[in-house]
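User: Can you predict the 3D structure for this chain?
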Amino acid sequence: MATYETEAVVLRAIRYGEADSVLALLTLERGRLSAIAKGARRATSRLGGRLQPGVRAHLGLHEGRGDMATVRSASVVEPHAGLWAAGHRLRAAGCVLESALRALPEREPNAGAYHLVARALDLLAAAPPAPGPPRLHPLVLGAQAKLIVVAGLLPRLGACASCEAGPPLTAFSPAAGGALCPRCAGLGEPVAPAALAAMAGLVARPLAEADAACPGPATPDVERLVGLVLREHLGVVLRSAAPL
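Assistant: Here is the predicted structure, written as structure tokens:
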């Protein structure tokens, strides 16, 4: 048994019992883990408002014999209040939080993933509306593309994954390793070159430049590419994304 402090982003909060909350946390030092905040939903609790999804907080956690840690203390580092001021921001943030929850393994430290999610929430908290549904916001797609990178699942995008030929690349297969040339296209499914270019741009450029990296017409195809990679390598299908 151990008690420790860590910075964490709240990925999800589920009501449990009469007054408790079960949390999914992405921590800086210990990766993704589950914790219970006892009494957090009582009106007199000091924890409740500090443990909402999207909040970045400094937590005191106690590890007992069970699978879940227990929250002993919490102080807000960044509330991301702007998420709650506009519906499109909150829905977009929910897509990022779900992606981290589903794509990152439990209890595997990944500082890169932590800082990526925190940065995405910082940007979304001040983001103007984008055309289309919030799940296709370039910041959402940029965060998802970069999560693939930090999870070690980056597909090959600049040359054929099968024969190493250069552009044009006209198909994509996560099982084959990424983009495919016309000769190898039968191994995957057709994809617009603009979608591959947008995906590569989201990976290579800072998250703050996601709008420039991913033009609006490419966003549905980029979402599909991300979904195909997650399904192939992790068996994950995001509930917030369009069906594959």
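DSSP finds six helices and eight strands in the chain. The helical segments are 87-103, 111-124, 138-150, 193-204, 210-213, 219-234.
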